[in-house]
Predict the structure.
Amino acid sequence: MEWITKLWKKNKPVEPDQNVQPQTAKPALAAQAITLEMDIAPNDPFLAYILHSPGVVEVDKLKLESPVVSQLRAAGVRLSVPLVSQGELIGLLNLGPRLSEADYSSDDLHLLANLATQAAPALRVAQLARQQQIEAALRERMEQELRVARVIQQTLLPKEVPDLPGWKMAAYWQPARAVSGDFYDFIHLPDGRLAIIVGDVTDKGVPAALVMATTRSVLRSVVERHTAPGDVLNTANNLLCPDMPPKMFVTCLYALLDPATGVVRYANAGHNAPYRRTVAGIQEMRARGMPLGLMPDMLYEEKEVRLLPGEDVVLYSDGLVEAHNPQGEMFGFPRLRELLDIPGCGDELIACLVDELKVFTGPGWDQEDDVTFVTLQRTPQADPDLLAAFDIVSQPGNERLAMEQVSELAESAGINPKLIERIKTAVAEATMNAMEHGNQYNPERQVHLRVLSSSQKFVVQVTDHGGGTPITPQAEPDLEAKLAGLQSPRGWGLFLIKNMVDELNVREDAEHHTIELVFHQTGGVQ
Amino acid sequence: MSQGFQVQVRQQQNRATLDLMGEINGAADEALNSAYTLAEGQDPAVVILNFAQVSYINSTGIALIVGLMARSRKARRQLAVYGLSDHYTEIFQITRLVDFLTIYADETAAAAHIL
């Protein structure tokens, strides 16, 4: 404990000198005040003494084994007057010997005690004012440092969202404090794919911001060596684990978008599952994985979706869903799903979500957590033109008829020969499946084909009469098992179709079953 | 229209070559397997499938080829192919058939490696 004591100190007397007359020392007896800075340990007996025996202390008469008393004596202090305010010792007024060198009288002691009573509150006020000034200066310095930290942190975020043909992206980042534990990132890969990352560090403020900066750097370095989402998160986790502060971790969603095909492959380290908005409704894009920094050698499940034109994906941190309104009600996942499901939240999705959040929390909301969104939308495409529609009788071998007709249409539409071969195989297999499984090779049931084309894609729709009948899921062909006689040699049809097309869409109603084969004319599966 | 399927067997020293023609689909099942049985008659070390005159292979045709692969594997006989178009070479890669048989560009290349 450090106390600043006031000491009225007489100038050091002139050393006795035989050659100097006593009166020559008089000018040296003028008094002056000095500040004596002392550290008083909390267990110093002097402290206990003055708190329990208020009043003027005659230092020379004090019989205490105390470092403070020794210091006072060494400094020539005769009287020590405790300054107490509201039961708290706030200073000592120390006096040296009287200028007259006479002892202090009882009147002196009484006067000093009264003075202490008057001076202590004033000193307390002065101390508080000084403390406030120091704290204000400190706060200003910290705020200035946080302002700089925020600017620095903002430079770690993408300066702009990627501009990819056929895609519309947006991002929103709003820290709860000056700096944030939330982050997002876009990384363009050499093969044309785009890595999209959204992360959320536990806690908020400066500690979270420091971990955020580290995590972002680690992820960026890992992406240079790995591309598979599961591998990226696994490696990043192993790098982060040794240095992660106690009780901290990072949730992170890593998605890899192929802009040409719309395929999004992703892995999730404990982050909120993104929502995919489709014509059929809202879907959660779930994948299992522990947050980063908790335990090494974690495995991260990889999943894949193909976004169709008009569909979009929303990635978000928990600052939105965990926001509370003045009534203490949480925003919650159901509310978010409802918002995503209404047509009004269309192109300007982020603005819509932020507006809804403001309405929910009301004015003067003390933001509880960082809020981050990233949205990506595959922009709707113009409907392709119908080139032809025709029927095929369900008889073995007739898939060749469908294949040849579609091939001629593809050729006339300017499709390249390599893609035409793919189209032929996919159409033949789809038509075979329709004739066999949908129409049971009943010649009275025809397979209906529609061929459509635009500058971007070539589409073949194959419809049979198998609607209303559940489609039996086919096992993925296992060649080793087939060669060992453990699996039928057949069962390649759907596998071939999937490998020939860029998109495969299936629709059915009570009567019909339609498989739509989509081939991109630029990019796509090569 | 359908070209049907035909196959001819050529026996050469330690190998037998099946010259396949037309379309390999379900209708080719009997002819293909009979030809393979014939090719095995002289117990050749290698059976070669010549696809140079094949215009179409569907998923059932792939299944027939898998059946031949299973037979050759059981008999510890090597199976090789040549004459595949780029498209069907890709299909053999996608289906991983290439992991269990050897693909040559033409008969000369096949003969050079097999001898």
In short: The two ends of chain B are 39 Å apart (CA to CA). Chain B has a mean pLDDT of 92. Chain B touches chain A at residues 1-2, 23, 25-27, 56, 58-60, 62-64, 66-67, 69-70, 73, 85-87, 91, 94-97, 99-100 (CB under 8 Å).
